[in-house]
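Example record

The entry below shows one chain as it appears in the dataset: sequence first, then structure tokens.
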Amino acid sequence: MVSAVTAAQQAATGTQAAGTQGASAASAASLNYNSFLKLFMAELQNQDPTSPMDTTQQMSQLASFSQVEQQVKMNTNLSTLISQSMIGQAGNLIGKTVTDSDGNTGTVKSINVATDSSTSAVTLIATLDSGSKMTIGPGVTIAAATTTSTSN
């Protein structure tokens, strides 16, 4: 039994090592889930029939791993939702006056939305009326564009 479980663990480790470094959390969880199932099946196939594994323990292991997998999927979906929300709000910045923590200021002419594929992090980069670029994030103040009025 020990050798079968060890072989299954080595197969699972080999499967994980074959993955790319840029794998997302969801695909990493999928590899881990597949590895778990391989180990679980090896345990079931090679258990001592006179002393089988406790079914309560089996179900507990399976339920725990399913919860972790669902949490990873939920985090991925939440990241996607946050990214889409930021993209939707990016258009509202055009025409606004922005000031960063160093005192640089300008009116936003366009927004570039960049997404890091490995972390799903969204970065907003504003192009100002002066042609300079400013990353929109903590420390940046956004205000309505200043207008000059003329009276007759």
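Notes for this example: The radius of gyration is 26 Å. The mean pLDDT is 75.
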